[in-house]
Amino acid sequence: xxxxxxxxxxxxxxxxxxxxxxxxxxxxxxxxxxxxxxxxxxxxxxxxxxxxxxxxxxxxxxxxxxxxxxxxxxxxxxxxxxxxxxxxxxxxxxxxxxxxxxxxxxxxxxxxxxxxxxxxxxxxxxxxxxxxxxxxxxxxxxxxxxxxxxxxxxxxxxxxxxxxxxxxxxxxxxxxxxxxxxxxxxxxxxxxxxxxxxxxxxxxxxxxxx
Length: 210
Description:
Elements: E1 7-12, H1 18-32, E2 36-40, H2 46-57, H3 63-87, E3 91-95, H4 98-108, H5 113-124, E4 131-136, H6 139-149, H7 160-176, E5 181-185, H8 190-206
Parallel strand pairs: 1-3, 1-4, 2-3, 4-5
Helix pairs in contact: 1-8, 2-3, 3-5, 4-5, 4-7
């Protein structure tokens, strides 16, 4: 019997409000009565979490090294968390996935899109999300929120241009996959963002995407 579990991912730059959005997704899935796990990238698995520490707290990493580490962590995550859960009919909700690499390592670091597609095909293959919610926030707004929240990690210390490029990467990805990726206006207040997320989840369920 084929698994009917679904794979949902949440994307967005720093300060987009992913923690709040995850809570909305969890509450919705609880109402639907489905069994699910919450995970994240980079990380979500013991070895991937160790790589996460390198990615977020190393003093300096070359762009290609960053890319390779991201996909190494992703491979562990897929093989040991995402695919096994989906196979057991458990839904998976991931805070970031492969779209983030196109945004951060692609347009953010300037790595060729074709290189990202090569690694996506090799590591991710057919294990693509059923639905991706992209929290689109103005970089200045997002960075201010992130600064008020906690001490900056290596990525958050990048300049505004870097985050503007990341946003363009996400928007480019959205244009490639409009059926899967749904944009949420994350510049708005929590109530408005919550309403948008619930709307997209319910619409996906009505259309039997979820």
